[in-house]
Design a protein that fits this description.
The complex is a heterotrimer of chains A (126), B (130) and C (96). Chain A is an alpha/beta fold. Chain A contains four helices and five strands, in the order βαβαβαβαβ. In chain B, helix 1 runs parallel beside helix 2 (60-71). Chain B has a single domain (2-128), classed as DsrEFH-like (Hypothetical Protein Ychn, Chain: A), CATH 3.40.1260. Classes of the chains: A alpha/beta (126), B alpha/beta (130), C alpha/beta (96).
């Protein structure tokens, strides 16, 4: 597979729009991001809408022992996934601040969304 | 152009698989190559070997299989999503000590890397979700 | 230019707002499945910001008995037209 090495922007944008536990979207979206990174792709994550709750501190496993996503999130840096964009408006709506989150993030204003989608070669929306 | 589809909706419960198949026909009719259909999330159920819909309804598994037979489309099922939901080919069934298997060729269990690969190496990736 | 597909009615889900917020000035929106309900004259106002760039899939309108009830500002396309839209777009993003 040929790499587009001249491209400065990251190749894969994974949009996460769900919180932990309620469905498998978050876990499956994160899995896609980790695999893309493991294959040497540059990956950006965008926590959008409800997806911002994926980053809230203090998450745990479910009552049946179902795994949460916090351990996966903590592995992102190991996979060189360092660009974590967060929907600022969604944080505001939920009364959350960047300091309430597990990981350092880059707030994204609504006006920057379209450009973010446009500059990635592949956009996967979960 | 080289097309890939990502199907994330289960059969019959949502329209996603029907929409994907209809789109697939139109892609081929316009002279494009439909190289890959990747099944993820509940979309993996579209590979269920034992699906037995009423005869007067579209048989989704057979229709996907026909894409492979008629156009050489590769039918790739995410192995992690499939195993969790009981979609096992003969090899995986044996490995997990299960009697019988629920998925067979031309559907194939593959890693998620194949989705990323299809998304970046094909000209177009179109997603159908529940 | 990105083609965005939307399969939810604006009365049933707020995901259309996420799609609209993510659309660039030339991006297009294609309503499919239950999303075609957004093409009704009483609901199309939700897509006012992208008027002229809103498409709806004919087969999904017809199957729901809505083909004749579509707002005049919505561009109706068949499956072949859907493929054409994906050809013309750099990429396609699905909202669900």
């Amino acid at each position: 597979m040929q790499d587009d090495t001249t491209k400065a922007s990251s190749q894969v944008l994974v949009i996460l729009r769900h919180g932990p536990h309620g469905s498998s979207w978050l876990r499956e979206g994160l899995d896609a991001a980790l695999v893309a990174a493991a294959f040497g792709r540059e990956v950006t994550l965008l926590f959008y809408g409800e997806g911002v709750t994926a980053l809230v501190e203090g998450q745990g496993a479910g009552p049946l022992g179902q795994k949460g996503t916090q351990p996966t999130l903590e592995m992102l840096a190991m996979y060189d996934i360092e660009t974590l964009l967060v929907d600022q408006q969604a944080l505001d709506e939920r009364g959350l601040a960047a300091s309430d989150l597990l990981l350092p993030v880059t707030p994204l204003a609504p006006s920057q969304l379209a450009a973010t989608l446009a500059e990635h070669e592949l956009v996967l929306n979960f | 152009m080289r097309y890939a589809l990502l199907v994330q909706g289960g059969p019959y419960s949502d329209q996603a698989a029907h929409s994907a198949l209809r789109f697939a026909e139109a892609v081929v009719a316009r002279g494009h190559r439909l190289e890959t259909v990747f099944f993820y999330h509940d979309g993996v159920y579209n590979a269920a070997r034992l699906a037995a819909p009423p005869q007067d309804e579209p048989h989704l598994v057979d229709r996907f299989r026909a894409l492979h037979d008629d156009h050489g489309t590769q039918l790739k099922v995410c192995i992690a999503a499939g195993l969790r939901r009981g979609l096992l080919d003969e090899r995986e069934a044996a490995r997990h000590g299960k009697q019988g298997h629920s998925l067979e060729a031309p559907f194939e269990l593959t890693g998620l890397g194949q989705l990323i690969d299809a998304g970046l190496s094909h000209d177009r990736l179109i997603t159908f979700s529940p | 230019m990105i083609l965005h597909t939307l399969n939810r009615s604006p009365t049933e889900s707020r995901v259309y707002r996420q799609a609209l917020a993510a659309m660039g000035p030339d991006d297009r929106l294609l309503l499919i499945e239950d999303g075609v309900q957004g093409a009704l004259p009483s609901l199309v106002r939700h897509f006012g910001d992208v008027s002229g760039r809103v498409f709806a899939l004919r087969e999904d309108l017809e199957a729901r008995g809505l083909a004749g009830r579509c707002d005049a500002t919505v561009l109706v396309v068949d499956a072949d037209g859907f493929v054409t839209l994906t050809e013309e777009a750099d990429k396609t993003v699905s909202w669900f």
